[in-house]
Amino acid sequence: MSTKQIQTIENESELVRKAKGGDQRAFSLLVKKYESTVYSFAYKVCRNEEKAAETLQDTIVNVYRKLDQFDGKAKFSTWLYQIVTNNCLMKRRQSKLDKSSVSIESHGGRQEESELQGDGSPSQALVSLTQTPQDEVVNKELREHLDNAILKLPMEQRIVFVLRDVEGRSSEEAAKILKVSVPAVKSRLRRARVFLRKQLQEYKEV
Amino acid sequence: MKTKPLSKLRCNEVAKYVCENLDEQLNSRKCREIKKHLQSCPKCTQQLDSLKKTVFLYRNCLTPSISEQSHKKLMAGLSLMIMKK
Question: What does A14-38 look like in DSSP terms, one character per residue?
Fold first, then answer.
């Protein structure tokens, strides 16, 4: 860990300590520091700007009310992700808009095995994605398809996919955030990755 | 407990392992066997590549910034909350 990283953690711990003690300026600084992180995560999960903004608002209210309960055993960001994740799940329950989602139990299972049941010829894989990804512009149509595909995932898998693959959090941290085991995180992640790959493959074959 | 001979790894076992551990820094015996399998199996290598590309696209899909209106609303709500306390 670099000196800068240690200083950042110390500064953050100090901010949290002050905010817990009722320092409003410290709390505002914490909000400013994490506002984009929370909004961005909520957007990546909900794929909707309005929902992301509402989730951000709810999260900040929750943080303010529950800050006394933060014991500092985990990183502040991990605790924050727990709250925003719960709010994303709450929003999903409230809106019930993702009717196309299927239950987590019925979704995975033998999915990854069926991925390999083709003849293995190039046409079965993501042939049209073989160009260098760096050179590919995520155009509007592709973006819409990416949004639609991820919205079909059960929320539990979607959150794991965003935490691990988009945000770059470790499996251990994702497990702490979701309060599940590391193998459960890996299992959800596997299902999500396989499902999304298949969705993308279908899009590219159209 | 008997362990399965690693040299007889099947493609679906490789797929499961790769899908769970993509991006993880692993150096177990099984991991080394998987890498060996991938070197000699074009089908699994292709599956792995397509998986990497899928993840890449999601990772690099731009996220809009919070709107000025939402930011102001948040700050106004925050001030109100602090005042009430």
Answer: HHHHHHHTT-HHHHHHHHHHHHHHH
